[in-house]
Predict the 3D structure of the following.
Amino acid sequence: MVGLREFLLEVEENNADEFVRIEHEVDPKYEITGVVANYEKERRAPVILFEKIKGSPYRTVVNVCASRRRLAQSIGTTRDGLLAKYLTALDNLVKPKTVADAPVHEVREDNIDLFRFPRAIFHEGELGPYITAGIVVAKHPETGIRNASYNRLMVKEKDRMSINMTVGKHLWECWKAAGDSGKPLEAAVVIGNHPAWSLGVLYPGAFGVDEYDIVGGLLGRPLEVVKCKTIDIDVPAEAEIILECEILQQETELEGPFCEFAGYVVKETPKPVVRVKAITQRRNALYQLICGGAHYEHLLMGAIPMEANIFRAVKAAVPSVESVHVPTGFTCIISIKKRAEGQARNAILAALAADLYMKHVIVVDEDVDVTDLRQVLWAMGTRMQGDRDIFVIPEVRGSDLDPSAPKDGIVAKVGFDATAKPTLDRYPPTGRIPQEVLEKTKKFILSL
Ligand code: MN
């Protein structure tokens, strides 16, 4: 069994440069983000463990999922193998296994007080405090189908939060269905999560796909789960903290303002209320946060499952798709081995259809490394003509987090065909060097 703390020990032992321990007291208002942002200025994103948080007894970790290399290691692969590993997991789902005893049941908190957790406020303009790294687990009240998702939670009182559930998405659907019979929806909030759990939960699959099965696929073994004490929900046995809750039907509380992944502060609006019935945790529980806003971790966690989802959709339209990369919100780069004219546009249409939020899709040939933005811009500069190779689909439903949209959530989706026309093998050759010469000249360079 491996949870977050075991994973962190591994990182600290094997990749010391990716693990930072901060001993002096840090104010959860802005200072956690301050530390993260200063590392990001240096283009670094280590795991950061705060030993002392002002006003809270909890040690707190941030940036667990902020690097592709770390995420890859958490599921036993390399940075370059991440997409393939995720796709394999989707084809090899593994059901969870119920266990009787769980570390997360070591301590039951009788005194429910959400303000004992770090009162996290990440950016100016936010009122907070927020719980940002909680996986919300619920079941559809009629079918029993489980759903697990990340939702932002604003702490309002000792045992009350307001929750952001995207209208039409799976958790919202479960909550609505419970409301049909006038009942609250039971839900557990899981805090302190192994990266594989996060990656699995974030897959944008169809309703009915149990996210725990994807986690099992990623781990290559069943996720061990245990039943909550006061609600009929199974949670990861190795989690650090569980909030046993119900999402109420009638009451609302203001939620927001909050800086979202697009980098802009979202206004406050009334949202459903979550009431906490019980808290269980591991001994010396470790608290976890994800910095809101456009920070590495927030963007990357969603990007990897999104890449797998888009890859699958594009593969159905263009079987010779090579790779997909989501470098930032609303944008993706796809490489294909174009075997026939027009396939770049098919790839663009498939990607835009597969992901509601996807807005700009760039397609390149297979000789371009999609993760190297300099190469991508080179392809756009030398294989694309704006009047011929850019096409715009106006007034499509997109993200409501895009402040440039003229109407809320209505955007223009754009495809950029940066592949060589008509095909790469009929295009001027690039400056290549014979492979044997590359090998031979390696010897001249001492560091290689
Ligand atoms: Mn779901």
